[in-house]
Amino acid sequence: MPLSRTAFLFDLDGTLVDSVYQHVLAWHEALQGEGISLPVWQIHRKIGMSGGLFTNMLLREIGVEITTDRLDRMRALHAAAFRRLGTSVRPLPGAVELLRFLTDRGVPWAIATSGRMETAAPSIASLGVDPTEVPVVTRDQVQYAKPDPDLFLAAADRLGHPIEDAFVVGDSIWDVLAARRAKALAIGLLTGGYGEDELERSGAFRVFDSPADLLNHIDEVGVRR
């Protein structure tokens, strides 16, 4: 049985590792590879949702024909670009310390990411996380990714913890929407480029600057020091 009544379900990109803008540039490169030119800010607004939904929305908005082959090519181009750009990805300030703190206090936690393992694995390794010891749920393992709740529901199930007693920690409105649909409480972080007001309007009950800021105020979300 868990030593804590609380569990934490973490998004990965922009929440635990500083990788949002590498993903933005990787998608920008993938789109250009298909002859599609979009400003990077427009791409950024959709980072955090599933790759399939992300590309569907972008292509629909600009009136480009969507085909399975085109989506597959774009996913492959994105993965290749991110593997190259991702060498600069590092844990966000306080991320490693926060995970260590929760482990030391017996608070269960898991990672749930819309990324596939092929792009997520290096970021997970940079945190010192072993997926054979800590539940890590990726896009490969669920039917639908964010803003659907499947990733967080699967992560809670892997922990054997009621989703209603879990905090979802994420940096995007897509994380918060998925948390609400899963019936979990959402904590927002500003490390992905979304503003405090956006995260709160989406349903985050608390917003912190970074993993370090969350750790500094961990007692405010019911975890005793």
Automatic annotation (TrEMBL):
GO molecular function terms attached to this record: hydrolase activity
Keyword set, alphabetical order: Hydrolase
Xref: Pfam families: Hydrolase (PF00702)
SUPFAM superfamilies: HAD-like
Residue stretches in coiled coil: none
Superkingdom field: Bacteria
UniProt keyword Hydrolase, yes or no: yes
Keyword Hydrolase carried by entry: yes
Database matches in InterPro entries: HAD-like_hydrolase_sf, HAD-like_sf, HAD-SF_hydro_IA, HAD_sf, PGP-like_dom2
Gene3D superfamilies from the UniProt entry: HAD superfamily/HAD-like (3.40.50.1000), Putative phosphatase, domain 2 (1.10.150.240)
Protein name per Swiss-Prot or TrEMBL: HAD superfamily hydrolase (TIGR01509 family)
Source organism (scientific name): Labrys wisconsinensis
